[in-house]
Amino acid sequence: MTGTIINVAAIVAGGFGGLAFGKVLTKNRQDMLMQVLGLCTMFLGIGGAMQEMLVINSDGLATQGTMMIIGCLVAGALIGDVLDIEGGLEHFGDWLREKTHSGGDGTFTEGFVSTSLIVCVGAMAIVGAIKDGLSGDMSVLLAKAVLDCVLVMIMTSAYGIGCIFSAIPVFILQGGVSLLARVVRPFMTEAALSNISLIGSMMIFCVGVNIIRHRQFKVANMLPALILAVIWAFMPWA
After folding, report:
1. If I label 108, which of 51, 102, 128, 236 is the partner at 20 to 30 A Cα–Cα?
2. Where are the domains of the chain?
3. pLDDT tens-digit profile of 98-120?
4. What's the pLDDT tens digit per position in 5-21?
């Protein structure tokens, strides 16, 4: 779990850097940075999705994974809506706001939820945690830690202290995967990892839209789609 601990430390460091940096930024500049961050997040999602969808074969450029995307996202979103994952994450954010005596911070929960989804969703978190747990290879998580530090710094400058607490779900998710790496590794085939990357990238795009348009998608409710993406890889039609 060393890679996850470093990742968590980078998030906290970026968060405190954002708090200090945010004090010297005007509201207009904070809004500008959030728009830029949202745009970058959207294109990170688009780039990751296109990398998995576009293939070159004998007939030229083609796409793959269309049915997997539709099936997993539709079913996953329905499951997530029934479980109300988004609501649970928001309630946890509200609980953290109360416990940290940040009741006057109107953006605490929004910052916590949005930042948590950015730093938790994606193939880097899963693949990096598995490599760290199986062989102690922290290279993926170290790269992710640098990215997360910068992202959290920018988001904290705009949303406030709530963003720092995204370190909690990162520790739980990545740490849990690292501890269970030997159990989940047989299921993390190349096809399964590709599906996770594709679905995760589309969810990252949705997070980018939320940053710019203020929560248009309930991305947390789509999280079950990541599990369905792994299951899809083992289906006869995959």
Report:
1. 128
2. 2-232
3. 777 766 666 788 888 888 877 88
4. 999 999 999 999 888 87
